Amino acid sequence: MQLQQLIYFMTVADQGSFNKAAEKLFATQPNLSKAISNLESELKVNIFYRTNRGVELTEDGKKLYQYTRTIMNQMELIEGLAVKEAPRILSVASYPIITMGRLMSEFYIRHRTESISLKLSEERMYRVIEMVESGEADIGFVMSNQVQLKELRHLINFKGIELHVLGMDTWYANLGPAHPLYDRDEVTILELLQYPFVRRPDDYFSNLTHYLEIDGVRLTSFTRVVYANDSTAILSLLHTTDAFRFGPGLSADDFSAYGIRTIPIRNCKIQITSGWLQRKRETLSEEAADFVAMLQNLYPVSLQF
User: Fold this and answer.
1) 282: helix, coil or strand?
2) Topology agreement, domain 85-161+284-298 and domain 171-270
3) What would the mean pLDDT of 93-119 be, rounded to a whole number?
4) Distance in angstroms (rounded) separating the CA atoms of residues 273 and 170
5) pTM (2 d.p.)
6) What DSSP character marks residue 135?
7) Which of 171, 168, 147 lies closest to 265, judged by CA?
8) Any idea where the domains of the chain sit in the sequence?
9) Is 193 a residue whose pLDDT tops 90?
10) Which of 162, 141, 148 is nearest to 251 (CA)?
11) What single-letter DSSP state applies at residue 17?
């Protein structure tokens, strides 16, 4: 049985006449009749009653018509795959940073009339790298200090990933209105040492930072630590308690919208490199390229070191 035979059968049944079906199919009436006869012989049933007025379906013909209609519907779906546009998706894996949520909102607004699915995953740096490597994310956003950067470059080179540096930054203290140092223009690391320090749970890269120092004080000196892996919980802690966190100057405006200040830390020499990741030798989608352009506008001259 061939698909063309079923197409002939459906057309004859719909037209109720071999002649009319032949005209519609641009085929000769004898060839059409032969094709139907071969189909009946193969199925060993009569599918049409021939009358002077044309043809009518037999009971077996009616069953065949239902089955064939199902096949034709499925064929239309299959053929539609060839012409249907591939779904547009933007998937970003990002080091946890409040700014990324704003960028996603801005991207949505810019493309709200288009059918684009958006996915933002906030992950620690090692997981960001894994997601870019596996294709779960089109691009990744990372921030690494001077201790982490060498290891980051080594790992992504091994995994076939490129790092595109966006800018340099340093750490500031994020403090909410309930914090005693909230109105200060500058704070010292010794002043911060007496307050709870909010941070994300450790991963491989964050463990590398334990020996970092700010103005002679190691980060391991902070004994009052609050671990939180939820952005809403972190915002609430900063806004309502005397806890603080270290954060880049990049997010100052975004925290300010929640009443949280980004205050310079005296003699903080920590260097933070921000950049985005992509798989080597892979062309970015139109959506990913547009998002990268937004990332490239994150660092004004004032934040270049």
Assistant:
1) coil
2) yes
3) 93
4) 8
5) 0.69
6) T
7) 171
8) 3-83, 85-161+284-298, 171-270
9) yes
10) 141
11) S
Looking at residues 278-300, what average pLDDT do you find?
91
User: Which of 70-74, 100-104, 176-180, 284-288 is the least confident region?
Assistant: 70-74
What's phi and psi for 70, nearest 5 deg? -60, -45
AA identity, residue 302: S
Strands 261-264 and 54-57 turn out to be unpaired
**Angle at the Cα of 77 (from 72 to 79), degrees rounded to 5?**
90
CATH 3.20.20.80 fits 171-270, yes or no: no
Answer positive or negative: Cα dihedral of 270, 271, 277, 280.
negative
87 pLDDT more than 80: no
pLDDT recorded at residue 259: 96
Q: Report whether 219 contacts 209 (CB < 8 A).
A: yes
Unique residue bearing structure tokens 């090692």:
126
Q: Which residues contact 145 (CB under 8 A, 6 or more apart)?
A: 209, 212, 270, 271, 272, 273
Beta bridge partners of 94: 122, 141
The topology under which CATH files domain 3-83 is Arc Repressor Mutant, subunit A (1.10.10)
> In whole angstroms, what is the distance from residue 13 CA to residue 194 CA?
87
Query: Which residues are CB-neighbours of 98 under 8 A, at least 6 positions away?
Result: 231, 235, 251, 254, 255
β partners of residue 247: 172
pLDDT level of residue 226 (50, 70, 90 thresholds): very high
141 in Cβ contact with 217 (< 8 Å): no
In CATH, what is the architecture of 85-161+284-298? Answer: 3-Layer(aba) Sandwich (3.40)
DSSP states of 63-92 as a string?
A: HHHHHHHHHHHHHHHHHHHHHSPPPEEEEE
